[in-house]
Each structure stands twice: as C-alpha cells, then as structure tokens.
C-alpha cells in the first residue's frame, strides 16, 4: 500500500528536478481512479477557448503569408524566366506566295492565316490611332497592362462566373501572337508578365505595328493590309479616316460585326471610334465631320485558295518541298516565301481546256464518272510543264496525274524493247506475230487484239502494230521481273510494279500518269533519268535563294539503246496505232496502251523536248475498274487519248521548230547474240518486215511473184498490188472515224511501183494484181488500234488480249 507521505515525497522530488507530473491520457475512469479532476474534464474555460482562436488565426495568417510568398515567388520566377519571342518568328509570320513559271502570275498562297506583313511607316497616323481609340485609349501611357481593367475583369469573373480579359493592346498582342488565346488565371498571369516585358523591350510604335500586322479583322484577314484588301479592295496605306475607323471598330467581334452581316452594330462602333479620335485629339472636328459617313465595303469574296484545279498544283508544291526535308509545313505557312513553279500558265490553261469534259465540249458525251489524267514535262531537266489532275481539288482530293492508278496496257512494251536492245537483239529480228499462241507458264492462249494474224514481223513492225504475241515472246526471254526492273529504273515509282504479274509486258499493272511520264522521259532523254519536279525555286522575304530544283540527270540506259527504242516508237505514230498524231507536224515517238477488258486507255508520246501522257479510265461507284463504253465517235480504245494528245501538242508546239531524234545504230544481231530470239533467219515461205531508216517497209520474199494480201491488224494495213508491167499500186484502210468520214485528213494513203505494162490497185486491206513487173506496197491506212479488219469480229477477251 502506497502511503500519502511517500506520494508527497515524489511530488517534491519532481518539483526539485524541474519536471511536471505526467498526465494520463487513458479513459476517464482511469483518470478518476488516479485522482484526476473529473469536473475539469467536462469543458474548457475562457482562457482555453481564447488560446484556440488565437492558434487558428495564426494558422490562417500563416497560410495567407505562405500563399503571398508563393505567389510572389512564382511571379518572380515567371518574370525572370519569361522571354519575349522574336517578332520574326511569331508576329511577323507572313503568307507564302506561289507563282507560275513566269514568276509574276500568282497561283495561290500558303498560310495558317491570310496575312501580309507591311512596314507600318507607310501607313497614315490615323490608321494606328483609330485602333488605339477602339481598343486601348491609354495605350501610349500605360506600362503594357491596365490594372483597373484587370481588377474590373476579376470582379466580373468572380461575381458572374465568366472569363473577361481587361486586356490592353500589348496584352492582346502577347496573348494572341505569343501565347495563343487564354482565359485561365495562370494564363492571364503569364500574359500580363509578357506584356510588361514587351512594354519594356519594344517601343509603342513597334508594339502597335506588330499588333496591326497580325490582329484578326474578319473575312479571313489577319493584319491591316489583308483587311484593307478584304473590305475595301485597296492597300492599307490608301485607307481613309472613315475606312480605318470602320475596321478598327469591329475588332472585338469582326465576323459578327462585319457591315455585311450586322450593319447596325458596325455603324455604332464606327461612330464610337470617330468620336473618341476627335475627343483624344487624333483628328480635328472638321476631319471628324468629313469622316462621319459610314464607308461602303466591297462584297465578301473570300474563298478557299484550294478551290478549282489550282488546288492540285498547290498541294503538289507543298508535298514536294516538305518531302525534300528543306522545309516544314509551318515554314511554308508562315515564312513569307516566294515560290516559283515550273508550271507554264498558258500551257496549263491549254491542258485544262483540252482534257476536261467541262471545258472541251464533251460534257454530256463522255460518260459520267469517266476519269482523265495527263501530264507534260521537259525530259531534259524533269520540269513539269502542265498537268490535268481534276477539275476541283475541294470536290476530289485524289490527284489523277500523280495518285490515281490505271492499267497502263501496252505502254509497258517499251521496256521489253529496251531489254531486247540491251541483250543485243537486232530490231530486224523476225518474230511470229500471229494470234492464239501459247507460252510457258501462261494458262490459255494469247492473241493480238481482234485475233489479228500479223504474220512474221520484225520488232519495228511489232511495235508499230502493238503485237501482243511478239512481246510475249520478249517477256518469255527476259522474264517479267526484268521488264519491271527496267521500268522502275526509268522512273516508275509505284511499288505495285514488281514483276509478279504474268502479263507484265502487256501492262496489267496499275500505275500513275506520272509513273509513265517519268519513265518515258528517260527514254526521250537518251537514257538519262531526270527528277520530275514542280518547284523551280524558293526565295525568302529578302529575296535570298533558299531552294533550287534538282535539274541534274542520272544515266540509267546507254544512249544508243534508248535511241533505238525511240526509233521503233516513231513507227507507232508514222504507221501504227497513233497515226492521228502525225497531223501535229513534228517528229513524234510514243506508245498506245489499252488494258484487258478495256478498263483503261492511254497514250505516251514525245519529242526530244516534251513528253506528254494522256490516260482515261472508268471506275464504278466503288472505285473498281469497268469497261470503257463507246461515246460519240470514240471507241473504248486509246484513240481518244491519242486525240487529246494531238489537240494539246499541236497548240503547245505551235511556232516551235521540228526536232529530230538522235540517230541510232542497230548494233544487235538478228536472233540476238545467242541466236535464240525470234524465229531466226528469214524463210522463203514467210513474209517479213525490214527497216529502212526510221521507217519500216513491207518486203515480199523475191522467190515468189504471187500476189499477197495485206494482213488484217489493229492498224488496218492496206497494201498495194503486185504484178508485172508498168503501173502503180495503191492501198487504203479505213475504220473508226474514217468509216463515217473517208475524206478526213489522214484517212487514205498510197504507194506506187514501176515496171512495164499493167497496173495494180488495192483498197482497204487487199492489193490487186497487175500483169508484169512489181508494185510496192501502199502506206498503211489510218485504222485505230484494237480495231479488227472485219467490223463484225470482236476482240477475244482471253487473258493477255490487250493493246
């Protein structure tokens, strides 16, 4: 048992040691048992409550002090770390203008905004003063921020739950052109700090000028210059006092207060600005009176720069420069560059007029949904002269010249010809040009169009007549992958051409107009591959050169090999499937192409200085290919693309001298170096063709003097008569257009022979017989490709039957 005396001693000992008695924090029962003051636990006295309130107040004051310190610290940090961006990078961003090849005719502009930066020194003082009167009367005296305006906006923000600005011109400038629009408190703090720094680092005239050059003023116009053009069709330097006041008055809501949309509000704002300008001494009372009539604005003609055919050109320019890695999209939109393209304005207009059914009078004749694509380039440097991509970029963004694909048909045969020439195969090598032939690895038979039996012909004639069976012989020797490789080396970019198609040489692959134009440009340029491009040069706002087009070429084929291919391709125009192009009056080489099932038709033709491709195809509503129907006097073959080519090139080459192709030496061997190409040497029982210069002439085996008939073919070979005696043989062939109009230019042709006694004559496809001597063959008549001699004969739709 613990005595009271011992407890007293303990208390005394603790007091002497300076310690207090430890109080129990256990439950009340325990404290009561140990002598705790039970009454005291029931509540707190006045002193205790006072101490609690004092403690809370200290906490609140401490928290406020902490927040203030943090705010001051944050402000100090932001102020110290905030840098004013260079005006050139933001406020001075300007439209990039794109020109046609003449460097003066505008094609369009690139911009995030329709903005043109000007030197404010050229502006009358009242232009800037009108904006000051409208937006910030204290501009010339404030420090970049308006504390009263900020306080007023803060009250409204708190009481009305809205976000108001209370911004000065400097703050608006900082917000919109350095920060982007902001309504948050932290954003406004950053804006105020930046405005203070701008006010310290830039004088008032500089701030006002940058503001005027970049503020949005409606009608898609950013800056006073663009606005002057949009509202009054004049430069900003020519604005009157009233015009400047009208523009300044609608700054808070330019689209809503546009005089064309809300004339009442626009007029109220206009009179307000005039009144303030007079009150603040910017204009005299007389000037205010003279300017008191609301000016009349022009019609709002704002439209999308990409509307119409130029939209395709502008997008090609953007893509080419961005893909070059020399520029970013932002660079083009804000750099204020001057871009000159390779597009010839007059030839571009001509291309559009020739190809577009909406322009060439064929609307309503051409089936709705028919697609056309075209491109014309200079093969020597790769510059694109003109193109047809479509009628309106905003309606259809797919570019028919560079993106849309079509089956290229027999235009692929040029690369098989190149392969044969590279393997030292003479173009005089004889091949079997008859129809219904079989080939290793090919299911079924292959025929020429119309099932034509062209006989035993050399590669000149096989090219002119576009013999499927002869070129399948070439593919058998070369392989599909080799032909595809040669086409890619020449310029085909589409990855779909990989040689996996069994009919690669017949053009089953879907490629683009640009692919074929590029590849043929390499052949036209004697084996030197150019880089196709649409941009000629780029200069900055100071006229400094930033970019020059890649005009150099790369040698991919031997010059003589390319020239031999060209030599063969001239026969297509002179006596083959594209004879309408003879009327151009220039030496032309080229190749027609019609896909299987008549899904697409095209023609690639060229001179030494211009390569042009014209193509058409007829997709269904889902984009799947379907047969091209006949329209007007045109069949679904390449006669219409040849016609478009002829129309365009006749005018594009008007007034220019005819250019001859370089000479080429056929240094190959008949049958190839190994003697396995074609049928080998000529046989006395077979007809064959030989070449004379760039033209090939039909030659009759001299071991027989019997009359021979001209073989039916897609080009309608009409031969003159043979016989003995003195006389002439004439031949003519006509189908297609010539059937209904035999007197049309180029529908008949003739040849002659000499001997003694007798005459020979022939018409259509069979020559007559004379009495003695021999007559030479007549020149071929103009029968469009793919047209059988017998109009009742339909082309066989077996695999590989295409032109």
UniProtKB/TrEMBL annotation:
Glycosyl transferase family domain residues: 106-277
Biased composition (Basic residues): 29-49
Catalyses which reaction(s): [GlcNAc-(1->4)-Mur2Ac(oyl-L-Ala-gamma-D-Glu-L-Lys-D-Ala-D-Ala)](n)-di-trans,octa-cis-undecaprenyl diphosphate + beta-D-GlcNAc-(1->4)-Mur2Ac(oyl-L-Ala-gamma-D-Glu-L-Lys-D-Ala-D-Ala)-di-trans,octa-cis-undecaprenyl diphosphate = [GlcNAc-(1->4)-Mur2Ac(oyl-L-Ala-gamma-D-Glu-L-Lys-D-Ala-D-Ala)](n+1)-di-trans,octa-cis-undecaprenyl diphosphate + di-trans,octa-cis-undecaprenyl diphosphate + H(+); Preferential cleavage: (Ac)2-L-Lys-D-Ala-|-D-Ala. Also transpeptidation of peptidyl-alanyl moieties that are N-acyl substituents of D-alanine
InterPro entries: Beta-lactam/transpept-like (IPR012338), Glyco_trans_51 (IPR001264), Glycosyltr_51/Transpeptidase (IPR050396), Lysozyme-like_dom_sf (IPR023346), PBP_transglycosylase (IPR036950), PCN-bd_Tpept (IPR001460)
Keyword Mitochondrion: no
Entry-linked SUPFAM superfamilies: beta-lactamase/transpeptidase-like, Lysozyme-like
One annotated GO molecular function: peptidoglycan glycosyltransferase activity
Transmembrane residue ranges: 56-80
This protein's record includes keyword Transmembrane helix: yes
Low complexity composition bias: residue spans: 679-716
Matching Gene3D superfamilies: Biosynthetic peptidoglycan transglycosylase-like, DD-peptidase/beta-lactamase superfamily
Domain (Penicillin-binding protein transpeptidase) ranges: 374-611
Keywords: Carboxypeptidase, Cell shape, Cell wall biogenesis/degradation, Glycosyltransferase, Hydrolase, Membrane, Multifunctional enzyme, Peptidoglycan synthesis, Protease, Transferase, Transmembrane, Transmembrane helix
Residue ranges with Gly residues bias: 669-678, 717-734, 752-778
Compositionally biased residues, Polar residues: 738-747, 786-797
Residue segments, region Disordered: 1-49, 659-803
Family to which the UniProt record says this protein belongs: In the C-terminal section; belongs to the transpeptidase family. In the N-terminal section; belongs to the glycosyltransferase 51 family.
Protein name per UniProt: Penicillin-binding protein
């Amino acid at each position: 048992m613990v005595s009271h005396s011992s407890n007293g001693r303990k208390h005394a000992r603790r007091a002497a040691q300076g310690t207090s008695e430890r109080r129990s924090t256990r439950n009340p029962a325990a404290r009561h048992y140990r002598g705790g003051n039970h009454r005291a636990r029931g509540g707190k006295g006045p002193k205790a409550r006072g101490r609690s309130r004092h403690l809370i107040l200290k906490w609140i004051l401490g928290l406020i002090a902490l927040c203030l310190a943090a705010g001051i610290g944050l402000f100090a940090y932001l102020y110290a770390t905030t840098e004013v961006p260079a005006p050139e990078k933001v406020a001075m961003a300007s439209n990039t203008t794109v020109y046609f090849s003449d460097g003066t005719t505008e094609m369009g502009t690139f911009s995030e905004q329709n903005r043109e930066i000007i030197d404010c020194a050229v502006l009358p003082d009242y232009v800037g003063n009108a904006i000051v009167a409208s937006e910030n009367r204290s501009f010339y005296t404030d420090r970049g921020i308006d504390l009263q305006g900020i306080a007023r906006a803060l009250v409204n923000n708190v009481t009305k739950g809205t976000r108001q600005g209370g911004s000065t011109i400097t703050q608006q400038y900082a917000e919109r052109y350095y920060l982007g629009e902001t309504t948050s408190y932290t954003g406004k703090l950053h804006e105020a700090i930046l405005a203070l720094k701008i006010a310290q680092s830039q004088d008032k005239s500089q701030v006002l000028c940058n503001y005027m050059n970049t503020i949005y003023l409606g009608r898609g116009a950013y800056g006073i210059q663009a606005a002057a053009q949009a509202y009054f069709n004049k430069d900003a330097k020519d604005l009157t006092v009233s015009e400047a006041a009208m523009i300044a008055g609608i700054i808070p809501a330019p689209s809503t207060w546009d005089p064309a949309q809300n004339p009442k509000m626009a007029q109220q704002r206009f009179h307000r600005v005039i009144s303030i300008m007079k009150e603040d001494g910017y204009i005299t009372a007389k000037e205010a009176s003279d300017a008191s009539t609301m000016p009349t604005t022009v019609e709002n003609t704002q439209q999308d720069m990409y509307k119409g055919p130029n939209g395709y050109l502008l997008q090609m320019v953007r893509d080419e420069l961005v893909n070059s890695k020399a520029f970013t999209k932002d660079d083009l939109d804000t750099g204020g560059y001057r871009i000159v393209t390779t597009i010839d304005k007059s030839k571009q207009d001509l291309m559009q007029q020739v190809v577009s059914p909406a322009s060439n009078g064929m609307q309503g004749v051409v089936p709705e949904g028919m697609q056309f694509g075209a491109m014309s380039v200079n093969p020597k440097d790769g510059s694109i002269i003109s193109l047809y991509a479509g009628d309106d970029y905003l309606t259809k963004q797919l570019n028919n010249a560079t993106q849309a694909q079509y089956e290229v048909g027999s235009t692929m045969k040029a690369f098989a010809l190149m392969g044969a020439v590279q393997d030292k195969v003479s173009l005089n090598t004889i091949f079997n040009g008859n129809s219904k032939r079989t080939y290793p690895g090919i299911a079924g038979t292959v025929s020429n169009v119309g099932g034509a039996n062209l006989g035993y012909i050399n590669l000149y004639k096989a090219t002119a007549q576009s013999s499927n069976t002869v070129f399948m012989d070439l593919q058998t020797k070369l392989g599909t992958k080799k032909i595809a490789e040669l086409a890619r080396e020449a310029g085909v970019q589409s990855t779909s051409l990989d040689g996996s198609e069994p009919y690669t040489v017949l053009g089953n692959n879907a490629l683009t107009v640009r692919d074929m134009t590029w590849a043929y440009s390499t052949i036209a340029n004697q084996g030197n591959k150019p880089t196709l491009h649409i941009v000629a040069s780029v200069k900055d706002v100071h006229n400094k050169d930033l970019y020059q087009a890649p005009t150099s070429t790369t040698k991919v084929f031997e010059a003589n090999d390319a020239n031999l291919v060209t030599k063969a391709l001239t026969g297509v125009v002179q006596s083959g499937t594209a004879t309408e192009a003879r009327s151009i009056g220039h030496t032309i080489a080229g190749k027609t192409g019609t896909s299987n099932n008549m899904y697409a038709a095209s023609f690639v033709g060229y001179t030494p200085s211009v390569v042009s491709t014209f193509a058409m195809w007829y997709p269904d509503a889902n984009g799947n290919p379907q047969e091209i129907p006949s329209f007007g006097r045109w069949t679904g073959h390449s006669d219409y693309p040849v016609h478009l080519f002829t129309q365009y090139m006749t005018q594009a080459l008007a007034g220019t001298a005819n250019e001859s192709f370089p000479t080429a030496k056929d240094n190959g061997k008949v049958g190839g170096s190994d003697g396995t190409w074609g049928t080998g040497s000529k046989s006395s029982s077979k007809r064959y063709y030989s070449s004379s210069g760039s033209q090939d002439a039909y030659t009759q085996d001299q071991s027989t003097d019997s009359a021979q008939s001209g073989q039916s073919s897609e080009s309608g070979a009409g031969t003159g008569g043979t016989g003995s005696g003195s006389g002439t043989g004439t031949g003519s062939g006509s189908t297609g257009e010539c059937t209904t109009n035999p007197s049309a230019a180029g529908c008949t042709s003739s040849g002659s022979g000499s001997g003694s006694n007798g005459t020979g004559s022939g018409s259509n496809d069979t020559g007559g017989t004379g009495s003695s001597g021999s007559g030479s063959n007549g020149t071929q008549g103009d029968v469009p490709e793919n047209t059988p001699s017998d109009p009742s004969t339909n082309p066989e739709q077996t695999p590989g039957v295409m032109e």
